[in-house]
Design a protein that fits this description.
12 strands, 2 domains, 280 residues, Oxidized Rhodanese, domain 1, alpha/beta
Length: 280
């Protein structure tokens, strides 16, 4: 399993001596990291290190994937090898850049990576030391990434999937965004016609922790039904928080769903149909 409780972090660190990654997004990400992070954690920036932005979000969305050569170099710079245990968290209950980093690592075949449930806040509440000291791991050779097909789909695949009863497109954004009541980030409010809304926040309990695996399995079993997980596509606004739901699906024992990286930020910037209102 890929999710670790904050209370289990000290024992995990003592046993495995993992590389600790503090992954954050937003223009003030680094300053937030400097002000408050886990001891020994290295900073990774969603905006510049976990995505490869272009000037045109209509092609690939707001957070298109980093090319694999650059990702390989980044992992080497962080000291990560195929045998390294990695502990990753963010300051958004694991719902933002931590899940994206997890997904990218898993997608290139890395086995030993844990996302902290509840993120930095949960660890601080658990009494785990927080610091302003900045340390760096010793760099190693670029990570060997095999020539594999990443579990992603493009917009053409999504347009076919929403018309296929054997497939399912899940939109993990907040319900008000899905319904088209307002859109705080992208240009147009609404959703992909045929997509169902399962907000990523429903993966968490009232304290911001991931639900137990059995509850996630029951929840997503009801959503997916008899469909093969490989026919499930998950998206959000820009391909980041969707990884939170992909992580929840893995924890639930439902692997194989794919990521639509461009997500709503790409779809809404092109001449594709847009729906509003509740789930179909």
């Amino acid at each position: 399993m890929y999710i670790i409780k904050s209370s289990d972090v000290p024992a995990y660190r003592e046993q495995y001596n993992p590389i600790v990654i503090d992954a954050r997004g937003g223009p003030d990400a680094y300053s937030r990291y400097v002000a408050r992070h886990l001891e020994g954690a290295q900073f990774v920036d969603l905006e510049t290190q976990l995505s490869q932005k272009t000037l045109n979000a209509a092609r690939g969305g707001r957070h298109p994937l980093l090319d694999m050569k650059s990702f390989s170099a980044l992992l080497g710079k962080l000291g990560i090898t195929p045998g390294t245990h990695v502990l990753v968290y963010d300051d958004k209950a694991g719902a933002n850049a931590a899940s994206r980093f997890w997904w990218m690592l898993k997608s290139v075949g890395h086995k030993y990576v844990q996302v902290v449930s509840g993120g930095l806040d949960a660890m601080e509440k658990a009494g785990i030391p927080i610091t302003t000291d900045i340390l760096s791991a010793a760099a190693v050779a670029p990570y060997p990434i095999p020539d594999i097909k990443l579990p992603v789909v493009d917009v053409d695949t999504v347009t076919k999937a929403v018309k296929d009863t054997d497939a399912l497109v899940i939109d993990v954004r907040e319900a008000y965004r899905y319904r088209g009541e307002s859109e705080p980030i992208d240009l147009i409010a609404g959703h992909i016609p045929g997509a169902v809304n399962v907000p990523f926040i429903t993966n968490l309990d009232a304290s911001g922790q991931f639900l137990p695996a059995e509850q996630l399995a029951e929840k997503y079993g009801d959503v997916i039904g008899s469909r093969a997980p490989e026919n499930v596509i998950v998206h959000c606004g820009s391909g980041v928080t969707a990884c939170h739901t992909l992580l929840a699906l893995e924890e639930a024992g439902i692997p194989g769903a794919k990521l639509y990286v461009g997500s709503w930020s790409e779809w809404s910037r092109n001449d594709y149909p847009i729906a509003t209102g509740e789930n179909p």
